[in-house]
Write a structure and sequence with these properties.
The chain contains eleven helices and nine strands. It has 354 residues and is an alpha/beta fold. It binds iron/sulfur cluster (SF4) (2 copies). One iron/sulfur cluster binds next to loops.
C-alpha cells in the first residue's frame, strides 16, 4: 500500500453535460457543453491518468465517476473503466475499495443494467449512487419531473442486487414536506439496516437559492433528531471531507486534464492545476493550500464541536453577517450533538470512535 500522502481520493469527471437540468445544478451555465464526451476519450484519459499516477509513485484511493452526468457513457465503457481502476488497485496491492458512480439515475434502466451485469466480473465491483430528493413533490420540482423514472430505476437496481447508495439534498422545499421526507428516509434506512442495500444513505444541505434559513435548519434538526435520522447527515458522519474544514482533501480530475477541489468547484473558476502538464506532487501541494486561509468564525475556536466540524466545508460556509465563517450546518451540529451529550454520548467518545 502506498503511503497515505501518495493516495488520491477522487472523482473522475467524465462529462460537462447532463440529461437533466436541475434547479440547483452545480455546473455554471456557460460551462455546460452541448455535446457529450466520446466514450473513447474517457477510456483514454483514464488510462493516461493511471499510467501517469503510477509512474510518479501515486495511487488512486477512493474513486467515483462524477461530473456532470457520468452515466452518459455507455455501460460497456463504464465496465471497461471500472476494470481499469480495479486492475490498478490489484497491481498496487490496494484492497477493500470499490469503484462508485454518482448518477441522476435516468439512464439506469434494465438495458443499462443488463450490460453492467453481463460485463462486470462481479456486481459488487461497482457501487451505484442515486441522487434523489424525496418526496416526489420536491424531487419533481427541483429535478425536472424525473422522480418516477429515477425512483423506479433505483428500486430496480436494488432488487437486481447491485449495491446502491442514496444521496439527497435538503432544500427549502423539503421543509414543506418534512413528514413525507422523514417517512421515505425511515423506510430506506430500515431496508439498509435489515437487508444491507442501500448500503449507504446520506443527506446534505443545499446552498444558494434553495438553502434553508436558520429557522428552517433548526426545525429540520429537531425533526431529524426526533425521528432518529441524524446519522444520515454527511456532516455528522465521520470521514467526510467537510469535517476537515480548510484542510479538506479531495480531488476532481476531468478527462481534459483539469483539476478541481471537488464537485463544488467544478467550473472554470475552480480549476487549480492540470494533471496532464503538472506532476502529482505539484498538484497535491497546490490542493493543500487551496482553502487554508478561508475565513473561520472566531467563535469556532472556542466551540467544543470544532473538533468534529472544523467550521465545515470552506465553500459552503456562511459568508455574511454574524454567522460568517461558520459551517452551513452549524445549528444542526449544535442541536444534535448537545442532545447526544444529554444522552451520555460525549463528543470525545464520538471522536475516539471515528
Ligand atoms: S471544498 Fe467542501 S466539498 Fe470540496 S473537498 Fe473541501 S470540504 Fe469537501
Ligand atoms: S458547530 Fe458552529 S460554532 Fe462550532 S465549530 Fe462548527 S461552525 Fe463553528
Amino acid at each position: 500500500m502506498k503511503s497515505a500522502n501518495r493516495i488520491l481520493n477522487m472523482y473522475f469527471a467524465t462529462h460537462k453535460t447532463c440529461n437533466l437540468s436541475c434547479r440547483y445544478c452545480y455546473i455554471p451555465k456557460d460551462n455546460r457543453q452541448e455535446k457529450k464526451a466520446d466514450d473513447s476519450a474517457i477510456i483514454n484519459a483514464l488510462i493516461k491518468f493511471i499510467d501517469k499516477a503510477e509512474s510518479e509513485g501515486y495511487a488512486i484511493g477512493k474513486f467515483c465517476f462524477h461530473g456532470s452526468e457520468p452515466s452518459l457513457m455507455e455501460p460497456v465503457t463504464l465496465t471497461e473503466c471500472t476494470k481499469l481502476v480495479n486492475r490498478h488497485w490489484k497491481k498496487n496491492k490496494i484492497e477493500g475499495l470499490s469503484v462508485a458512480i454518482q448518477t441522476n439515475g435516468i439512464r439506469l434502466n434494465n438495458d443499462y443494467l443488463n450490460v453492467l451485469e453481463e460485463k462486470l466480473n462481479n456486481k459488487n465491483d461497482l457501487r451505484i449512487g442515486f441522487s434523489i430528493d424525496p418526496p416526489k413533490q420536491v424531487h419533481d420540482l427541483l429535478r425536472n419531473d424525473s422522480y418516477d423514472i429515477v425512483f423506479g430505476n433505483m428500486n430496480n437496481t436494488i432488487n437486481r442486487g447491485f449495491k446502491v447508495g442514496i444521496l439527497s439534498v435538503i432544500t427549502n422545499e423539503t421543509i414543506q414536506y418534512v413528514r413525507e421526507f422523514a417517512d421515505w428516509m425511515k423506510y430506506y434506512s430500515w431496508l439498509s439496516d435489515n437487508k444491507g442495500n442501500p448500503y449507504k444513505i446520506k443527506i446534505k444541505f443545499a446552498t444558494g437559492e434553495q438553502a434553508l434559513n436558520e429557522k428552517e435548519i433548526k426545525e429540520l434538526s429537531d425533526y431529524l433528531k426526533s425521528n432518529g435520522l441524524m446519522n444520515l447527515c454527511q456532516i455528522l458522519t465521520p470521514g467526510y471531507c467537510m469535517q476537515r474544514g480548510n484542510e479538506c482533501e479531495w480531488y476532481e480530475f476531468d478527462i481534459e486534464g483539469n483539476c478541481y477541489s471537488c464537485n463544488k468547484a467544478y467550473g472554470e473558476d475552480g480549476i487549480f492545476a492540470n494533471w496532464q502538464n503538472e506532476t502529482f506532487a505539484e498538484i497535491v501541494d497546490k490542493r493543500k493550500n487551496l482553502y487554508i486561509t478561508y475565513l473561520q468564525n472566531p467563535e469556532c475556536c472556542e466551540c467544543i464541536y470544532e473538533l468534529i466540524c472544523n467550521s465545515g466545508c470552506p465553500i459552503d460556509r456562511k459568508k455574511d453577517g454574524e454567522l460568517a465563517g461558520k459551517a452551513l450546518e452549524c445549528s444542526l451540529i449544535k442541536i444534535v450533538l448537545s442532545e447526544s451529550e444529554k444522552n451520555g454520548n460525549y463528543i470525545y467518545e464520538i471522536i475516539n470512535n471515528c
